[in-house]
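Subject: Sanity check before I submit

Could someone independently write out the structure tokens for this chain? I want to compare against mine line by line before I put it in a report. The sequence has 163 residues.
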Amino acid sequence: MAFDFVDSDTGEILSERVPMLVQRPVPVAFEKGGFFTMAQGPLKVFEDHAQDLGVDGFRVLMNLLRKLDYQNHIAVSQADMAREMSIDRARVNRAIKRLITLGALIEGPKWGQNRTYTLNPAFGWKGKGSSHQKAVRTAEKAKAAGLSVVKGGQHQEAGGQTA
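---
Independent answer below. Compare away.
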């Protein structure tokens, strides 16, 4: 089946041409600024605990998300964050503790003078999708087995006694 087309620039009738869509590459808006995905469901945690987090908590969360590295690793200096945000280091520390309590952040080991954290993979992910699925499965298995990260490497018995 042949179609006649009109060249919009010249008005010439173009017979027996097959229409074809040629799409130009579209620049990706996120290439230079970084990109991560965030789950919508766990955002309810932030909504439900907005008063507990307060403005400082949300500001610290945004600052940490901006520094999110691949596989959700975050290495930060609380003192540097406090200077960047023009607030006291103690306020940054309290906000981070609240985010850990809510389960959004997982505290990791110290790296030099700085503490490391991981964004809970149930909240969001920066990296390959297959790595995300593995991280979520690992976290679910650990939780199902009753495992958790303990502060300072000390085991806590039921009732809060340190073993």
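---
OP: Matches mine. For the report I'm noting this point. The beta strands are 4-6, 13-15, 37-38, 73-76, 105-111, 114-119, 124-125.
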